[in-house]
Structure to design on (697 residues):
């Protein structure tokens, strides 16, 4: 948005960044996190990319070509010539991979929706609670983190199994006559995912709802809004950054989820994380496993980029 | 306290005979926990009036305004708007609108979106709403900013958006909660005049809450001075300044010299008060005082004359020594230590561009005034 005239009292923020001469010390301090990011994220990604372009062999390491440092220019040329996109082709040739990807996206999308539907009222209630209660409620939300994630998923096995807690409670209440098969179904996967990821949905939602200024709701009431109208016209739009943050915080890791479907799901629920695990540890096919990882990364870059764009817009909105 | 209640009820007289009040607070009480924020308060506000609720923080003025807006219901008493009891009407159905101290602009909507919010809510047609928004933008001179978001505006511009939004639905009463508190002094003074201009132009009743007595005096037709949830005085700005109802009001509004004394006699429209140190003061009569009563004399600093030439007046004259001089540009304020050991303030308009200040610290001076310069206050 251009500032319309010189007479306006304030220009849109973020239009001009003051240039600051940086001392070498400052440059080092700024450079350090970048170095960190490069070492721990960029370089590993490049290694995975490079393996995904190789071919599997029974050897150590289990792929060719291997870069020969002593070979000089000819070796580099030979190395580059031996790389190929063959593995990516095979991913699209086999329905196993495509269906795993689709299943992962389906589970991630549906469970994120369920998380949003469940998490929003929880976060809203927390944000409306009296001040002294809010800290306790936040504590309760993050309390499960004090127990290992793996143990909590194992606990769900005992709850969902044939003679588990859930079946016994439902039978005692007379809801069902015979034990219902929960474990090794998609339902169990959804239950496990929604349970495990709820804090990741509730906390960003709570953060954005909690900073909502109550005077805005009063202003809406003053201008003719009933409470539910003010909720839809003020509260919901202003909590959208939280909705987006929570959605991506859940959707992205759920897509790559391995432990929950592996422990709670059946053989018919194969998410991409499991396929990747099988290729890597079962088939010892590092190049195909790497190609799966790279494709997954590309699938997730879209929502991450979206998130980033939204976040920048929010910061500018302050 | 019966006397206070009688005192307060005298404010309910209409300013103009025959004009019906637009808003009537009828013995309204509001408590928060154990605190009585508004205490048995009765007050009438008339159509087309610019009315100010003035008082120190915590005096209940904002509570009173919020009760009128519908944020909370009175624990006792009624609030009438155009003769109708609105005590239980929710805010979204009251024909009053409020401009909030924080402005409470919706950050996700543009200036236009903010102003049109209430219009959309009452399902005005799109065309009419657009026209109304344009009128309002012109009214507050924000035509160039229509598409901006609140965070892209300056403080003064935000204030005007808030004002336009509150006026959009043509409320019967516009409520302003410390509307200028967030502006700097210069802008605040300009905006005060802007508000009065706007109020005259629209003819809508404005009720403003402020703790700034100068602001109240500048904008309002009538001022209600509040303290501890009660009305202390309701009058025009000049009455409040010249005829304060009590020592508290005299002290709260502007600068004042207060001298303790005893009424000696009241006759022929003049009251003689003997000060603590034996000086004689003569003033006009005031209500509710009688001979022998312990009273306070309130004298505004600008109504006193200061001179270095000795005075032989037997009345309305005190002498002392200048202990301090404050140069304020437009005025000079002398602090004079008088015989009783108290300080009196005298302000003198700075007419000439003085090179020398004729009266210096340490000079012996006499302060004199005319009988109509001050008031005698019984409480």
């Amino acid at each position: 948005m251009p500032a319309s005239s010189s007479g306006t009292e304030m220009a849109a923020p973020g239009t001009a960044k003051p240039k600051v001469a940086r001392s070498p010390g400052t440059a080092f301090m700024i450079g350090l996190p970048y170095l960190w990011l490069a070492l721990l994220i960029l370089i590993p990604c490049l290694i995975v990319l490079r393996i995904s372009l190789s071919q599997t062999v029974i050897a150590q390491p289990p792929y060719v070509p291997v870069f020969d440092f002593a070979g000089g220019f000819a070796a580099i040329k030979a190395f580059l010539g031996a790389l190929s996109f063959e593995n990516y082709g095979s991913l699209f040739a086999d329905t196993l991979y495509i269906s795993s990807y689709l299943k992962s996206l389906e589970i991630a999308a549906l469970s994120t929706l369920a998380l949003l539907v469940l998490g929003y009222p929880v976060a809203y209630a927390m944000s409306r609670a009296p001040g002294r209660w809010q800290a306790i409620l936040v504590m309760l939300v993050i309390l499960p983190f004090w127990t290992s994630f793996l143990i909590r998923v194992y606990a769900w096995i005992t709850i969902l199994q044939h003679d588990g807690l859930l079946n016994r409670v439902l039978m005692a209440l007379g809801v069902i006559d015979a034990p219902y098969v929960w474990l090794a179904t998609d339902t169990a996967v959804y239950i496990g995912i929604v349970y495990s990821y709820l804090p990741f949905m509730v906390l960003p939602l709570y953060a954005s709802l909690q900073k909502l200024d109550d005077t805005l709701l009063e202003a809406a009431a003053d201008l003719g809004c009933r409470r539910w109208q003010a909720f839809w016209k003020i509260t919901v739009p202003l909590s959208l950054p939280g909705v987006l943050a929570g959605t991506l915080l859940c959707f992205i890791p759920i897509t790559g989820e391995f432990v929950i479907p592996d422990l709670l799901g059946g053989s018919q629920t194969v998410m991409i994380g499991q396929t990747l695990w099988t290729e890597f540890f079962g088939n010892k096919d590092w190049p195909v496993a790497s190609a799966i990882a790279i494709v997954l990364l590309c699938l997730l870059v879209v929502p991450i980029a979206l998130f980033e764009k939204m976040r920048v817009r929010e910061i500018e909105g302050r | 306290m019966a006397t206070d209640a009688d005192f307060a009820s005298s404010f309910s007289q209409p300013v103009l005979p025959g004009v019906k009040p637009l808003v009537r607070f009828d013995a309204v009480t509001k408590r928060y926990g154990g605190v009585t924020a508004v205490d048995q308060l009765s007050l009438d506000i008339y159509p087309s009036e610019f009315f100010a609720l003035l008082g120190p923080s915590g005096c209940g003025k904002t509570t009173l305004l919020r009760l009128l807006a519908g944020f909370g219901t009175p624990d006792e008493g009624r609030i009438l708007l155009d003769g109708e009891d609105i005590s239980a009407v929710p805010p979204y159905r009251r024909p009053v609108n409020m401009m909030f101290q924080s402005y409470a602009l919706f950050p996700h909507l543009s200036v236009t979106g903010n102003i049109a919010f209430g219009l959309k809510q009452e399902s005005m047609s799109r065309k009419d709403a657009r026209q109304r928004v344009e009128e309002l933008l012109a009214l507050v001179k924000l035509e160039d900013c229509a598409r901006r978001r609140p965070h892209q505006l300056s403080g003064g511009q935000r204030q005007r958006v808030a004002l336009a939004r509150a006026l959009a639905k043509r409320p019967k009463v516009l409520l302003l909660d410390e509307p200028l508190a967030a502006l700097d002094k210069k802008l605040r003074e300009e905006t005060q005049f802007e508000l009065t201009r706007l109020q005259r132009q629209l003819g809508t009743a404005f009720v403003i809450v402020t703790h700034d007595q100068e602001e109240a005096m500048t904008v309002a037709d009538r001022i209600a001075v509040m303290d501890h949830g009660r009305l202390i005085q309701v009058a025009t700005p000049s009455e409040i300044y010249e005829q304060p109802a009590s020592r508290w009001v005299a002290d709260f509004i502007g600068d004042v010299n207060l001298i303790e004394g005893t009424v000696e006699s009241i006759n022929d429209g003049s009251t003689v008060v003997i000060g603590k140190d034996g000086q004689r003061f003569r003033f006009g009569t005031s209500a509710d005082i009688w001979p022998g009563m312990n009273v306070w004399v309130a004298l505004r600093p600008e109504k006193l004359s200061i001179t270095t030439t000795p005075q032989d007046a037997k009345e309305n004259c005190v002498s002392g020594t200048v202990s301090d001089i404050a140069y304020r540009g437009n005025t000079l304020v002398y602090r004079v230590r008088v015989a009783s050991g108290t300080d009196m303030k005298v302000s003198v308009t700075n007419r000439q561009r003085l090179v020398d200040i004729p009266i210096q610290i340490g000079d012996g001076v006499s302060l004199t005034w005319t009988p109509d310069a001050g008031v005698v206050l019984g409480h």
